[in-house]
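Objective 1.3, modelling of assemblies. Example input:
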Amino acid sequence: MTYLSKLLIKNVEIISAPDNEKYFLGIDNDTISVISKEMPTGFENAEIINASDKIAVPGLVNTHTHAAMTLLRSYADDMVLMDWLQNKIWPAEAGLNDEDIYWGTMLSIAEMLKTGTTCFADMYFAMDKVAQAVNETGIRASLSRGLVGLTPDADEKLQDNEMLFKNWHGKADGRIRVMFGPHAPYTCPVSYLKKVVAKAGELNAEIHMHLCETAGEVSDCVKEHNMTPIKLMNSLDMFDCGTLAAHCVHVSEADLDIMADKKVRVAHNPQSNLKLASGIAPVPAMLKRGIIVGLGTDGTSSNNNLDLLEECRLAAMLHKGISGDPLLIPAQEALKLATKQGASALGFTDVGEIEVGQKADIVLYDMQKPYWYPRHDRVSLLVYAASATDADTVIVNGKVLMKNGELLEMDVEKIYAEANMRGHRLTR
Amino acid sequence: MTYLSKLLIKNVEIISAPDNEKYFLGIDNDTISVISKEMPTGFENAEIINASDKIAVPGLVNTHTHAAMTLLRSYADDMVLMDWLQNKIWPAEAGLNDEDIYWGTMLSIAEMLKTGTTCFADMYFAMDKVAQAVNETGIRASLSRGLVGLTPDADEKLQDNEMLFKNWHGKADGRIRVMFGPHAPYTCPVSYLKKVVAKAGELNAEIHMHLCETAGEVSDCVKEHNMTPIKLMNSLDMFDCGTLAAHCVHVSEADLDIMADKKVRVAHNPQSNLKLASGIAPVPAMLKRGIIVGLGTDGTSSNNNLDLLEECRLAAMLHKGISGDPLLIPAQEALKLATKQGASALGFTDVGEIEVGQKADIVLYDMQKPYWYPRHDRVSLLVYAASATDADTVIVNGKVLMKNGELLEMDVEKIYAEANMRGHRLTR
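Predicted structure (tokens):
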């Protein structure tokens, strides 16, 4: 990808700055280099974006999804989990080819950029195709090959993940990171998990895994291993690799203590957990222990969109409602989960804030909408009132990927047509 | 208001029709007069809307809000209820004048139309100004004067409500209905409630009341009257008037039986109930009993927007998640709550479906968005994936109020400026 060396956003409000103040926000290559009230020097020949009545917010981070499953969006809803998986999702997925995964991922990336998400964690297969889509489109991502250990090709999958790591980790101007993706306790025998942990340890790679999503998963694991999934993974030294654990709905106090001690990061997927009737993760207890929690949508078969602002709002609302404590997860904290904490959960250390020295992953939201009035408090307006579709301009790693709501380098009409055609072929 | 006598929407998909089929939808004055696959006769000189790649959905119905409170949106969030009311909301509301209420309501109506809501139930004060805004803008509404019986002017308020009924019930081409609005059990003594019920009975008017919103309200009522709020209101024969009960979060089995028997209709406000940490209403139990349930946003101080599609999605998700039953409130049913059941809850008998003979309250959603692909199931896409901002064209009572996302008869820039200025004056 080519970069304009200098980009200057002017007249911009910044979500973390005092309300009503306007700034110049200067970007040098991929990094925010200046934030000032006066026109900074050195930007005389920069590309200029006039952000009048727009507010700059760190790009949202989706810490857990299966992007290509977008092809199955709206195909099967309102079903019991196992009926849904066995009779709908798995048979349809069996027909997925590499090109399907590419186009499904392209549709997801178009949706994420259009709704203000600049970084995502993906776990699926044919991940080379996903990496290709990420590389081409300019978005940022943490990729892991979903590893199911029960099938004859389990070792091949592990090799896939190793190749993915070697080919893509740190690549695309640093926009891609790679993790290992053991799917779940119920799809990975201990012997296989040991291999995964050994390989990740050897490469100094981190791990992304579904953990404690349903009560059934936890009770089955306890029955088989006499340990909760968290205890079991800890006993395998998985967490020493650095682990992103998706869901963590059903975790005990003892599990939470282990997670805090071992710095396990959590991908909280409130809407997917509600829709699949899995339950509600004890996020306030996690935050109290200092556990890093990011937000995720999960795949669009169980959400059914990739609107991370919706997850941010739901996280802020839901934990108040079920606890009876209206002070839990205030707007400011919810936004932090959706941005800085999400980036940290994925291992991106210089992403998630609008500060000098951070990577320039920035969304400009158009505030000329009724629900952005009156302007008493911008953070509250964003988290509790705005629409993700207010994202007007999206910058990732210093590059403008969307302007005035139009994706600059993606042929959305072709993407829509390909996704629609492939989605229908898979579900015939 | 003037009406075009004939309006024809062509090439349109209809949410209740089979996927992929295109229709002609003919409107005669305020009523849907024809739905057909062929060009209908009699529409040769009609105004034409070409709805290519758009889908017609009944306008959403917001069954409970306080529209002018929009002026306080984002002023005070993440607080405990009584601290919030006593130290923020009530002092600010004390400064509200009639013009504030007009402009706050205009901002709300702009937001509702832009997010696909064509009908709302409002309870506030200076309701003449609200009726004026409804009359001018062309939206449909059920209006009630909020009646607090503890203040010296309680009887005047009741007279206000009576005048509102006499001046506006059935007016504005039938778009306005008026109810009586006793605020809540804790703000209305029994002696006052008796007067309200008597007056409503005399005029054959219905009642809109906050009931069983918090556990504290219910326990206080039981302590004082040895009856739950539902039992108390039933003992006063309130339900014989026809009652729209907002919230009903804390209702017993016995309460639910009374509600079913007396045909009490419920305004379910899932997001407000979560944000204020009130809890979650037992909607599946209500639906099982055949109780009519509509959806509401409540005021934007406790929501913080008027996006009814968001409430529809949340209602569909939330009850699955907390019950463990993923089959509860499927997409089709959630949409019905947001449309037909909502209209019924407000007493509009010929509103809420796209059928010949129904009033023409129709929203055309633009499906050229990534989250509307692939098109496996339109209802699922709308309820679980779409954005309320996809509303492209809005028709109320046969009149086109919004086209291509632009409100045709509202000066939104003036509304934004007035609302912002007034909101800041109130909270100085």
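The radius of gyration of chain A is 21 Å.
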